[in-house]
Specification:
Helices cover 58% and strands 0% of the residues. By secondary structure, it is an all-alpha fold. The protein is rod-shaped, with a radius of gyration of 19 Å. The protein starts with a helix and ends in a 21-residue tail after the last helix. The structure holds zinc ion. Zinc ion (ZN) binds next to loops. Zinc ion binds next to loops.
Length: 53
Amino acid sequence: MLLKIIVLFFVFIAVLGFFGKMHWLGGKRLTQSRCKSCGRYRIGTSPCPCKKG
Ligand SMILES: [Zn+2]
């Protein structure tokens, strides 16, 4: 019973680390897709709102 709780705990930590790594990769990609004129973060490949007028 106790061993089962410990295994579940380690699985939980592994899942947290996996999602943390995914979030870190997403954040790095976001910093690379900033607008060159105003510096705001762009979402996807859509152009920055500052260029629409
Ligand atoms: Zn912009």
